[in-house]
Design a protein that fits this description.
Blueprint (H helix, E strand, L loop, with lengths): L1 E9 L5 E7 L11 E4 L4 E4 L7 E6 L2
Antiparallel strand pairs: 1-2, 1-5, 2-3, 3-4
Length: about 60
């Protein structure tokens, strides 16, 4: 289930990727959603701040 969609920006490289928050991924633990890109790569859980990325939520 896709919960939110965002643009994830790496603050060092300035690379941007579209990501979505989901609980349907092998990286999910204890039913905590993770941010996943369109290729299926998981980055970090919803409730854990990451100092290398900024998220801009997209309203759809």
């Amino acid at each position: 289930m896709v919960m939110k969609t965002a643009i994830m920006r790496n603050i060092i490289t300035k690379e941007e990727k579209r990501v979505h928050l989901t609980t349907n991924h092998p990286a999910v633990q204890c039913n905590i959603a993770v941010w996943v890109d369109d290729e299926g790569n998981a980055y970090f859980p919803e409730d854990v701040p990451n100092p290398f990325y900024e998220l801009r939520i997209i309203e759809e």
